[in-house]
Design goal:
The chain has 105 residues and is mostly helical. Helix content is 69%, strand content 0%. The longest helix has 33 residues, at 5-37.
């Protein structure tokens, strides 16, 4: 057991984080299992979302996340479009040229 006050607080915080990570890992495994069994776009897309969040939280390595997503797509034969790039292309505003103002004397 730690004696220093900050070490005690860190131990307490680490226990809470470990519990949260365990719950999220369980959610990740469940989402992957459901996506493997079903072939619906909704389940696969929700699994993609959970995988991306797990990568962001450093629960799994980004390459492992990519491998899992690739395996889901190739196994189920589902084509999932990248929504972020498509939405950014649609929201692009037309550029407007500014007219140079004349200098006053």
């Amino acid at each position: 057991m730690p004696v220093i006050k900050s070490a005690i607080k860190k131990l307490r915080r680490d226990k809470k984080v470990a519990i949260e990570n365990g719950l999220f890992r369980n959610k990740l495994e469940t989402a992957i299992r459901v996506a493997k069994k079903s072939k619906s776009d909704k389940d696969i897309s929700s699994a993609f979302s959970v995988i991306d969040k797990a990568v962001k939280k450093h629960l799994i390595h980004k390459n492992k996340g990519s491998r899992i997503k690739s395996a889901l797509v190739t196994k189920n034969g589902v084509v999932i479009e990248k929504t972020k790039k498509a939405s950014l292309a649609q929201k692009a505003k037309p550029t407007v040229k500014k007219v140079a103002s004349k200098k006053s004397k």
